[in-house]
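Fold Annotation — chain and its backbone

Encoding — discrete vocabulary of local shapes
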Amino acid sequence: MAKTAWPGTLVLVAGVLLCAAVEVAVGAKRVSISDDLRDVDEVFGIATRWTNVLRTGSVAAKFVAVDFGTLMFTMDRGQDIAELKEFILSQPEAYEFKIGDQVFRRPGDPPLDQVVEMLQKQKSQDSDSRPYKSRVEL
């Protein structure tokens, strides 16, 4: 029989996707952090700040920066998940988060994949419609 290191401890591991210029596509009021302006220290700072705020509210969750757009969190007490969900979705930097295959986002917000696709289409249309000056005009 296999033994676990912490019997009776539930550990939830999930990811939080940070928004980057998503408010333009969905019309929400959120802080825009473009990917080229976000650095490792900023993402690490978000993870540290969220961990500390939740700790003061007696929610044992720890956030870790995975990349420029993703945080991972772990928590020992599954009963705190409702508070965690409310906290994450109230943060301007968060767009959605996943626990296993289940995705949580604010009501009315489209999936992140659709938003990214919409932003890419808009960006390509903007670059195609830019008028350029001919060499004669210059």
Helices lie at 23-26, 40-56, 81-90, 112-128. The chain has four helices and five strands. Residues 12-128 form a domain with the Alpha-Beta Plaits fold (CATH 3.30.70.260). The chain has a mean pLDDT of 72.
